[in-house]
Amino acid sequence: MKTLAKTFLLVTCIATATQAQMLPNMFFDGTDRYTAEVNEDGAILQSQSTILYLGKDCDAFSPQYGAGTWGWANAGFNVTFPKSGKFIGFARQESPVEERLPTLCRE
């Protein structure tokens, strides 16, 4: 009986991990939900109304807001677009982008 329970637990853990890997990365800025697609240049975050391109060198771009930058801190990560005055914060969430150099985008 113990072997059966251990086998069931192991299969459940593997199935859960596999399912989690298949789901897209989801992010929430307090208003909109974004899906993330990671690529060799960084990541693309997309909501129903906004697209954010986040680069590995802390650069950002949005067709809606123009050029900007992104950075992370212990409390989450933020995207800032100076010319449009737009600030998008993702509190208590880790950036989907792996920076080119460790701590490069730390705020």
Topology, pairings included?
Elements: H1 2-22, E1 25-28, E2 33-39, E3 42-46, E4 51-55, E5 59-62, E6 66-73, E7 76-81, E8 86-91
Antiparallel strand pairs: 1-2, 2-3, 3-4, 4-5, 5-6, 6-7, 7-8
Keywords:
single chain; 107 residues; alpha+beta; 8-stranded antiparallel beta sheet; 42% strand; globular
Commentary on this structure:
This protein has 107 residues and is an alpha+beta fold. It has one domain. It is 20% helix and 42% strand. It has one helix at residues 2-22, and strands at residues 25-28, 33-39, 42-46, 51-55, 59-62, 66-73, 76-81, 86-91. The protein has an 8-stranded antiparallel beta sheet with strand order 1-2-3-4-5-6-7-8, with no helix packed on it. Strand 1 and strand 2 (33-39) form a beta hairpin. The protein starts with a helix and ends in a 16-residue tail after the last strand. 22% of the residues are buried. The model is unreliable at 4-23 (pLDDT under 50).
